[in-house]
């Protein structure tokens, strides 16, 4: 973002470009939040947008029935002002729950909910614990000669990726490639042509998965989604485009965000040894660690897109009809208007449950229970095995995850069992 600390008042004629590298996400988020509840910004290729960055205004905006998700309401897109090959097209144009409204959204979400039941999630606990234990057994083997291992690559990534792929019925042969492709889809540093190519390849892989599950249904989410809706007639079923779009959403959201959450929690605990001591002593739960991480350093910084279907006034600022609006989760999570003067402090004793990391309203994240379960198991298991784990480099030197959508470090070098001082 171009000098976000510029004290000049923001106006629709003076939008601030969002930094596509995400090099200073929290500083940029704070500057926008303190400039106003809603601010004009510029997206890659000069596409105009706005961002809502304060907690209460964002909460209300996310639940407002006059705000749509379907890109048919995206004025710049409909007017031809968005490049055909654009980095953020996957967020705007994928066919599925995240870009549907009204009855269409209720139909798509209802079918996914039938397959994504609490019973299915609860039944995953033993498998998540087993996978975490296996990864932890192998973790020392990933350390270099200095005893340093990349926790992101060796633990935080394969755990949720393994879980979501097993849940979807995606075989191991596809997993690493799908992770690479999903990262290209969510990173705002990816070029437009590369992002569109990644989307096409992802759809092709998922179409093969669907074909395999149609030929040989199993006890997996893809098979359940294929079968869902039968009692309501053929019209209730997911079309092939909707099915692959839903799988794309679940694959990306089902591992990228949980991966970031685990990394961010380890970073937070490493930088706050007093907080780590509380949870290791059993005085505070791992659930509280996860909730405070979601608030303080959530896995998504700025999520695209919503579009007002009429001019809306947010805290005195007009958001014109058809504007592409981002949800400023990173900014809202540290809003002192909601959390008090210590909003910027990581504190696992803070009352939990009041954050927007999983969204709000009709589009609240369907996978939130699974993400919470995976993160708690991942962290509890990790620190049970390596309670003295430390970062191998200062936190400020960790490379940021490229992009302004996801929020995390691109690598997490740690010493599993550092020598005693």
Automatic annotation (TrEMBL):
Keyword Metal-binding: yes
Region of interest: Disordered: 1-20
Domain of life: Bacteria
CDD domains: CYP107-like (cd11029)
Keywords: Heme, Iron, Metal-binding, Monooxygenase, Oxidoreductase
Stretches with biased composition (Basic and acidic residues): 1-17
GO molecular function, one term: monooxygenase activity
Alphabetical list of Pfam families matching this protein: p450
Gene3D superfamilies in the cross-refs: Cytochrome P450 (1.10.630.10)
Family indicated by similarity: Belongs to the cytochrome P450 family.
Protein name per its UniProtKB record: Cytochrome P450
Source organism of this protein record: Actinacidiphila alni
